[in-house]
Amino acid sequence: PSVRCLGKERTLGMIKPDGVSGNYAEEIKRIIVEAGFSIVKERLTQLDKETASEFYEEHSLRSFFPDLVSYMTSGPVLVMVLEKRDAVTDWRGLIGPTDAQKAKISHPHSIRAFCGKDSQRNCVHGSDSRSSAEREIKFFFKDVVSDDIASQHDEL
Ligand code: RTP
Ligand code: MG
């Protein structure tokens, strides 16, 4: 039995449609690995309206929700299970604040500062708590759905 999993935590990371279409995925993955995360699973998938709405259902009453769903369905996303000690907090720290314009000033080394555009098109997603991480990992990796563009794979 390996000891390498002791104390580790998992979170869900996602490269949103603007990140994938802008060809930022490889550089973002390099930043992720350099920051000490293992990319345990990854899958490229196209969200439909129903899936995007369910994923962000906590925001369903917000005025930006219809725009958010349009944005999230505008092209493929890359979802990843990321693992390290304190993965949830550390991934949120690495991506930076929601508004990419603000991130460029307050967190210039964050991923959203690097490839985000504004308060909506912010390039990446991160689970905001351990309970969200558990829900979101199950959301994308419990079953392999038939419309996958690339097949799910396990690197462990
Ligand atoms: P995420 O869930 O995607 O990691 O982003 P977050 O926690 O930093 O921000 P959250 O409040 O959960 O918002 C989810 C996503 O909705 C879009 N948004 N647009 N137009 C707006 O004012 C607005 N506000 C939020 C963003 O894409 C945000 O990441
Ligand atoms: Mg959020």
From TrEMBL:
Residues at which ATP binds: K16, F64, R92, T98, R112, N122
Domain of life: Eukaryota
UniProt xrefs under SMART domains: NDK (SM00562)
Gene3D superfamilies per UniProt: Nucleoside diphosphate kinase-like domain
Predominant location category: other
Keywords: ATP-binding, Cell projection, Hydrolase, Kinase, Nucleotide-binding, Signal, Transferase
A GO MF label: ATP binding
Subcellular location as annotated: Cell projection, Cilium
Record carries keyword Transferase: yes
Record Pfam families: NDK
Reactions catalysed, as given in the entry: a 2'-deoxyribonucleoside 5'-diphosphate + ATP = a 2'-deoxyribonucleoside 5'-triphosphate + ADP; a ribonucleoside 5'-diphosphate + ATP = a ribonucleoside 5'-triphosphate + ADP
Domain (Nucleoside diphosphate kinase-like) ranges: 8-148
Assigned protein family: Belongs to the NDK family.
Protein name according to UniProt: Nucleoside diphosphate kinase-like domain-containing protein
Organism field: Eruca vesicaria subsp. sativa (Garden rocket)
